[in-house]
Specification:
This protein has 313 residues and is α/β, with parallel strands linked by helices. It is 37% helix and 21% strand. The chain folds into 2 domains: 110 residues, ATPase, nucleotide binding domain (Nucleotidyltransferase, domain 5, 2-Layer Sandwich), CATH 3.30.420; 169 residues, 2-Layer Sandwich (Nucleotidyltransferase, domain 5). The longest helix is centred in the C-terminal third of the chain and has 25 residues. The structure holds zinc ion. The site of zinc ion has 6 residues, from loops.
Length: 313
């Protein structure tokens, strides 16, 4: 009998459920809203009720369902407990895995959402050919996931893969990162980071730039202006590439991965981003790690659901 697995991506706005076969084929997908009010008291009951519906609809049993994997936004201990999750309203340690397995009687594992997204890309996305991969999500913040020998590196406190908070800057910035630091990779390599950098360049120089005509400068417009040859935008993206590359070169010296996968909103800059980061990376990286592959994430918002399901196989 073929084996099935369920993957759930629990986000601050919605929860996405996927039923997969053991080859990674998505058979059924559904979404419900995440009700975060009252410290997220409805989240686990809603989650369990919806899982029950999926189990009944597809007649899933202990014989044909290997288990339920969940990706959640926070540090996870022992594949069970979420320590804190501001986005869900959770405060203290919540044992998500035991809550669900006690009610549904299936094996349950929980992992951090960025980590399961990385595992998803390794299973069925940009890094399908590889087993040792670092995924970097370049969005409002910078998230990451490290996959070694096909498994998530979660770390002792559940903070494995928090590469956005590597203190890569020699001089602290005048503003503080969400983590309390002021030298973080996230501060310079996120979409927010490149927007701030562009504003600094425009403020400090009198040079002409197409960016000056815009009411609000976002990352997409900066990359576009750089590709169109705008001098200030070119300087901004070069500094951006160098900062990101420094972070990746440091990671490569520790992890020595086969591939880096870049995802998140900034990765819409596509090949231009890959080329720029790759060039800057090759200048900084330890010699034998220079030829690591760079790819763009392929699964988008579904990556977490895929990776959560893969954990159970
Ligand atoms: Zn930080």
């Amino acid at each position: 009998m073929s084996k099935y697995t369920i993957g759930v991506d629990v986000g601050g706005r919605s929860m996405k459920f996927g039923l997969f076969d053991d080859k990674g084929k998505l058979l059924d997908k559904s979404t419900i809203p995440t009700r975060t009010q009252n410290q997220g008291e409805n989240i686990l009951p809603d989650l369990t009720d919806h899982l029950k519906k999926i189990i009944e609809k597809h007649e899933l049993t202990k014989e044909n369902l290997t288990g339920i994997g969940l990706g959640m936004p926070g540090p996870i201990l022992n594949e069970k407990i979420i320590k804190t999750a501001v986005n869900l309203g959770f405060k203290d340690n919540v044992n998500v895995a035991d809550y669900i397995s006690e009610r549904l009687d299936f094996p349950v594992k929980v992992a951090n959402d960025a980590n399961v997204a990385a595992l998803g890309e390794v299973w069925k996305g940009a890094a399908e050919a590889y087993n040792n991969v670092v995924m970097v999500t370049l969005g409002t913040g910078v998230g990451g996931g490290v996959i070694l020998d096909g498994k998530i590196l979660a770390g002792v406190t559940g903070s494995g893969g928090e590469i956005g908070h590597m203190p890569i800057l020699e001089e602290p910035l005048e503003w503080t990162c969400g983590c309390g630091g002021s030298r973080c990779l996230e501060q310079v390599a996120s979409a927010t980071g490149i927007e701030r950098l562009a504003q600094d360049y425009l403020f400090e120089s009198e040079e002409e730039s197409s960016l000056r005509d815009l009411d609000y400068i976002d990352a997409r417009e900066i990359f576009q202006a750089a590709q169109d040859g705008d001098d200030i935008a070119v300087k901004v993206v070069e500094e951006y590439f160098e900062n990101l590359a420094r972070g990746l070169a440091i990671i490569a010296a520790v992890v020595d991965p086969e591939a880096f996968v870049l995802g998140g909103g900034v990765s819409n800059a596509g090949e231009f981003l890959l080329d720029g980061v790759r060039k800057a990376y090759r200048k900084l990286a330890f010699p034998v790690t220079k030829d690591v592959k760079f790819s763009l994430a392929q699964l988008g918002n579904d990556a977490g659901m895929y990776g959560a399901a893969k954990m159970m196989l």
